[in-house]
Design brief:
Low-confidence stretches: none
Number of helices: 6
Distance between the termini: 51 Å
Mean pLDDT: 91
Strand content: 15-25%
Order of helices and strands: HHHEEHHEEEH
Length: about 170
């Protein structure tokens, strides 16, 4: 309602002394318009934060084994697209915020023969460097081959990173 509209107007730094902004003729239309703008601005901020982490995370998680390799999202848009491609919830705002704030990292497992095609998505809790989940299309569980890859990744990369953090 109106309180929500005013809160978002403040976020967008609208002039709330202007009565046309404060009391719009069509509250629903103006509310929806400002909500879209807030969403766009939030996505831009999340994009910037995730882009800043890309190079570091790419080096940190660089790994390949047999037919697969790890790819790190370049920005929020790639994570959103991953969720859409695989029909799972990783593109949701909580995942984007978690990654932007450093609570978790979203990384992709790709096939070497199809490096740009979504395959599996992995979520890593950064504080413990622990895999929270790894899901394929429509939240499918890992195949035995992907499970083997994830196990090697965990042993060769994550456990090593965790030990180095502890020192």
């Amino acid at each position: 309602g109106w309180k929500d509209y005013i809160k978002n107007c403040k976020l967008m730094q609208y002039d709330l002394t202007n009565e046309f902004i404060l009391f719009p003729k069509n509250l629903k239309r103006e509310h929806d318009k400002v909500m879209k703008l807030v969403k766009v601005e939030n996505t831009k901020k999340l994009n910037r934060l995730i882009e800043q982490k890309h190079e570091i995370l790419s080096k940190l998680y660089e790994f390949e084994y047999k037919d697969f390799f790890i790819a790190v999202a370049k920005n929020a848009d790639e994570i959103i697209k991953e969720g859409q491609n695989l029909h799972h919830c990783v593109g949701g705002i909580s995942y984007l915020e978690g990654m932007a704030l450093g609570n978790n990292n979203i990384i992709f497992i790709r096939k070497k023969q199809e490096p740009s095609k979504s395959f599996y998505t992995m979520e890593i809790q950064t504080s413990r460097n622990k895999i929270i989940q790894c899901r394929g299309k429509t939240n499918d569980d890992m195949t035995p081959e992907v499970e083997e890859f994830v196990e090697k990744f965990k042993n060769k990369k994550l456990n090593k990173i965790h030990r180095n953090k502890a020192v």
